[in-house]
UniProtKB/TrEMBL annotation:
PANTHER family named in the record: EXODEOXYRIBONUCLEASE 7 LARGE SUBUNIT (PTHR30008)
Gene that specifies this protein: xseA
Gene Ontology CC entries for this record: cytoplasm; exodeoxyribonuclease VII complex
Keyword Metal-binding applies: no
Complexes and interactors: Heterooligomer composed of large and small subunits.
Name the UniProt record assigns to this protein: Exodeoxyribonuclease 7 large subunit
GO terms under biological process: DNA catabolic process
Domain Exonuclease VII large subunit C-terminal: from-to ranges: 143-454
Domain OB-fold nucleic acid binding positions: 28-119
Length: 467
């Protein structure tokens, strides 16, 4: 917090080195209060103050106003909303607490007060550190793992309660169980819940309940109190006994804002002992209502079953006939089947005949008339034969004429008139020019009735007049 000068700028002068005020100058009350506040803030650092809470008020703004006192004195306190909303609990009348505060002056009224920055229950510093250390240790060992939590029985036959016989929590639990489930047996396992050796006795009672196996679920509870009062349920022995219990355990220790190691080790944490009793006990009214609903549903279902059975009986009665009547019905049915079989056997033949008649009728309708084409074809055939005959006669006459002409022009006829054909024996060509005739030249002479090979011994010159 920043310090403020005892005098405002321009106010009654600056203080001298010997005294903060001038004895001859009147000082306004606000300036005096401001100077006192500044001196208090400089002289008293943040300090822990212990005492009992009284006159606690929570303003609509969220600020806390209360007094802290002991046997000899009291001091007004203020805790502003910015810090109050982070407090771990809300103080109540009579709570013994410790506050970490700065001594200040509320200038408008000139009242000394503590500006609280943190609040804790008396003695919670050391105990809370032990609580956090044990919680972290057991959590690392898996005692708080969600997968090991067991569900509570829906309809327990007996409920066990581990608490002190003089505890108010026991009366709350018994009253709640008697109201909600008077039909469920309750067995109390007495154990002190506060003081030396309480934790060992609570753990022993949990083990006893598991050994006897006479209940289905176990409640471990006690009323509210300070952290010292609840410390028995922060002991490792109690936590391990709860974690190793074969019976589901519900922890109902303290008030809703109180948390203990037993709460984390239990299968279910209840905010109060009464809440624990409500969690483990089915409400009798709801059970009776559910039973009535199930009875009505069972009666309705049984009635519907009887109706279906009666209807089925009527149907079977209608089907029940005498053997003679049954034989008559079967004989009639057999005759019907025989008639259907006969009809079914002749039906394909009749259908085939009908289809054949339709096909023949269609064929006859589209069948061509061949008489006229045949007559025309016969006439054409006769004309073709006559034409071929005439053409043959013409061809025969033409061939005769050509044969006669060929006969006249035939080389054989020329040879028969006394002529001869000379063929060069070497080239096989006819000799046409006298110049081709030379001495000793071999020739083939063709005459009308044959041929002969000759050799020229002499060649005479060509005569110009005749042969």
């Amino acid at each position: 917090m920043q310090s403020r000068p005892p005098f405002p700028p321009g106010g009654g002068g600056a203080p001298s080195s010997a005294s903060p005020f001038d004895a001859d100058v009147a000082v306004p009350v606000s300036v005096l209060n401001r100077a006192i506040g500044t001196m208090l803030e400089r002289s008293f650092p943040l300090v822990w103050v212990a005492g009992e809470v009284s006159n606690f008020t929570r303003a609509a703004s969220g600020h806390w106003y209360f007094s802290i006192k002991d046997a000899g004195a009291q001091m007004r306190c203020v805790m502003f909303r910015g810090r109050a909303q982070h407090a771990e609990f809300t103080p109540r009348e009579g709570d013994k607490i410790e506050v970490r505060a700065l001594v200040t002056m509320y200038e408008p009224r000139g009242e000394l007060q503590l500006n609280v920055e943190a609040v804790r229950r008396t003695g919670t510093g050391r105990l809370y550190e032990q609580f956090l250390k044990l919680k972290a240790q057991l959590e690392a060992q898996g005692l708080f793992a969600p997968e090991r939590k067991r569900p509570l029985p829906t309809h327990p036959r007996a409920i066990g309660v581990v608490t002190s016989l003089q505890a108010a929590a026991l009366r709350d639990v018994l009253t709640t169980l008697a109201r909600r489930a008077p039909h469920v047996a309750v067995i109390v396992y007495p154990a002190p819940v506060q003081g030396a050796g309480a934790a060992e006795k609570v753990a022993a009672m949990i083990e006893t309940a598991n050994a006897r196996r006479e209940v289905d679920v176990l409640i471990v509870c006690r009323g509210g109190g300070s952290i010292e009062d609840l410390w028995s349920f922060n002991e490792e022995g109690v936590a391990r006994a709860i974690a190793e219990s074969a019976l589901p355990v519900v922890s109902g220790v303290g008030h809703e804002t109180d948390f203990t190691i037993a709460d984390f080790a239990a299968d279910v944490r209840a905010p109060t002992p009464t809440g624990a009793a409500e969690l483990v006990s089915p409400q009798r009214t709801l059970l009776l209502r559910e039973l009535d609903h199930r009875t009505t549903a069972l009666a309705r279902g049984f009635g519907r079953l009887m109706e279906r059975r009666a209807q089925q009986l009527d149907w079977l009665a209608r089907r029940l006939v005498s053997p003679a009547e049954r034989l008559r019905r079967q004989r009639t049915h057999l005759q019907q089947l025989r008639a259907r079989l006969a009809s079914a056997g002749g039906r394909p033949l009749r259908d085939a005949q009908a289809r054949f008649a339709l096909v023949r009728l269609s064929w006859q309708r589209w069948r061509p008339d061949l008489a006229a084409p045949r007559a025309a074809l016969a006439g054409l055939s006769r004309r073709l034969d006559a034409g071929l005959d005439r053409q043959g006669e013409r061809r025969t006459a033409q061939v005769g004429t050509l044969a006669a002409r060929l006969e006249v022009l035939s080389p054989q006829r020329t040879l028969e008139r006394g002529y001869a054909a000379l063929i060069d024996a070497q080239t096989g060509r006819a000799v046409r020019s006298p110049s081709a005739l030379k001495r000793e030249k071999r020739l083939t002479v063709h005459v009308a009735e044959g041929s002969a090979d000759v050799t020229l011994k002499d060649v005479q010159p060509r005569l110009t007049d005749g042969f």
